Amino acid sequence: MKLEMQKSEPPEISSKNQEFRKKGNSPICDLAHLSVSPASPQVSAFKFQASSSSSPLLPILLKEIDEAGGAIPFRRFMELALYHPELGYYASGRAKIGKEGDFFTSVSVGRIYGRLLASICREAWELLGTPSEFTIIEQGANDGTMALDILEALTESNDACAAALRYLIVEPFSLNRERQQQKLAAFSRVSWIASLEELSCFSGIHLSSELLDAFPVDSLRWNGESWEEEVVAAPDDQLCWKTRSVSDPDLAMAAALLPTNLATGFRVEVNPGMRPWLHSLHRKMDRGLILTVDYGQSGEDRYAPHRADGTLLAYQAHQRFDDPLPEPGLRDITAQVDFTTLGRQAREEGFEILGYSDQHHFLVGAAEPWLRSLGDLLGGSTPNTQKDLRSLQTLLHPSTMGSQFKAIAFGKNFPASPQLSCFKFQRPGVEVL
């Protein structure tokens, strides 16, 4: 097999059609930024079928719903379901990826994903002028696999980049931290903090893969005349959806930015955690960039008719559930990222958008130097190379991971030219944001 590449177009890699039931890397958020004080609701009649659960977290939810006057924002429900310090899906250590877990991620496909991210980190170090200290911050590290793949790739050559490297993981949960420490024991320049508030000023890159999709979100429904908030109630101790008028000032401001020419019943999620996350990183970053990869949409695609019921989903044992309320704490819950809002907020915080692309074109740009170096694969490829190529085919596949995932980068005091290689072929590009 020989890969033929033109200089003006990204190299093409074919792949067999592979099906992935979605959901991502265990994103770990700073709970200090996620706490929501439940408000006393004025709730409408039931909407949607009631949901029941026998999870250990249910009594805690029922108590909070009762104390709040009968309902809590969905954002608070999602926060407890994922991040309760003992029973939350991520905090409990229940979140697992791969064949034996609840979902696949780009990281679980193979080491090539982390190795390509490592090449981006090296390029960022070079564009910053090869500083003597270069910090990589990873948030949402799950069991440390992506960190391992990145560190192995960056330290192979034992050069100036490896000597400058400092790897920092943001991890608030002890079970996850213990797993990461075991996996990364061979690397001495790795450290941990519990939240971004503990982060010192740095120059380097903040990396995350499928982090923002697990930030707790508010859920809104268009009733034909105005946006209403969806909340979680529990009549007869059965979790169910209800709607109420929007009373929270911040949520009302977010709702005012949403379109009103949508079909009655259209659902949209609002992610209030993105702006404080961006603000924290901008405040702590001297020079560098944020690179985050997640699934979501931009522009009018966010409001396509087939998304009329929103993007909220739950995952367990590679099964997808349209209703996120059952089994709280036992299933992952996710909402796709609004990249237009993310880009606007990043600009407002003072970042420059360096690139925006689907994963296919993003990884082809990052992989191009490696692909060009392989030559005649039939004559000289190693088993690792062949495995990496198969993994890359899966990551690039246009009907699954290649199109569903998007990569976006924000820079602060980071050179806009030359462009990062990973955005050389970017599509759809920054212009759509």
Structural description of this entry:
There is one protein chain. The chain has 2 domains: 42-83 and 217-270, no CATH class; 106-215 and 274-432, Rossmann fold (3-Layer(aba) Sandwich). Helix content is 31%, strand content 21%. It contains 14 helices and 17 strands. Strands 3, 4, 5, 6, 11, 15, 16 and 17 form an 8-stranded mixed beta sheet that branches. Strands 1, 2, 7, 8, 9 and 10 form a 6-stranded antiparallel beta sheet that branches. The longest helix is centred in the N-terminal third of the chain and has 16 residues, at 112-127. The radius of gyration is 22 Å and the shape is globular. Mean pLDDT is 88; it is low at 1-52.
Features:
17 strands; 2 domains; alpha/beta; 6-stranded antiparallel β-sheet; single chain; disordered N terminus; Rossmann fold; 433 residues
Average pLDDT = 88
Helix content: 25-40%
Query: Which shape, going by the Cα principal axes?
Result: globular
Domain count: 2
CATH topology of the largest domain: Rossmann fold
How many helices does DSSP assign?
A: 14
Assembly type: single chain
By helix and strand content, what is the structural category? alpha/beta
Cα separation of the termini: 38 Å
- CATH class placement of the largest domain: Alpha Beta
**Runs with pLDDT <50, length 5+?**
1-52
Radius of gyration, whole Å? 22 Å
β-strand number: 17
CATH architecture of the largest domain: 3-Layer(aba) Sandwich
* Relative strand content: 15-25%
The major sheet is characterized as: 8 strands, mixed
